[in-house]
Here is the input.
Amino acid sequence: MAGQRSATRPPIGQMSSKNLLRDAARTRRAELAKTIPDFAARLAQHATALDIPPNSLIGAYAALPGEADPHLLLKALVSTGCTLAFPRVAAKGAPLVFHHWQPGRVMERGTFGIAEPQSDWPIAHPRILLVPLLAFDARGHRLGYGGGYYDRTLEALRAHGTIRTIGIAYAGQEIDSIPDENHDHQLDMIATENGVRRFHHT
Here is the structure.
């Protein structure tokens, strides 16, 4: 079933400030994390709907507490022969650097307390990215964390070819509208516990 809008959404889509949006979105996401404890399992059920070819290299992420957790989805994709790459913060203001991951490799805590690859792991250039977020809207705009890391990363990766971006979120993270700027990149798809939606960009 395609991802549906939440029946009860906070009126945060009316706010103009991205900082206010982020504060409200964090609160909303924390509530959703408590009310949907089986999110990871429900998300994984929609793995085939993503239409990711077997043996693809996927740019993934390790979820922080409260984030929409893709680990069971990743497990399902690995079972089709896909391989994973995880991002590392190389420097403030720089794009993320992706590194190949292999089973048994242990990631380390990075600058922001996020599990990251070690710097000596082989560099990866994934063409499919699973992207965390605070909120999204019906146009495929993503509200990030404010550091601009994913926008810079997508800009860098797209310089070398087409990138497919898949936002991972609770369905209830959808809001009416997210103010977009020139450097913002729209998502191609969003995957929630309710299913997968595709966005058509003009």
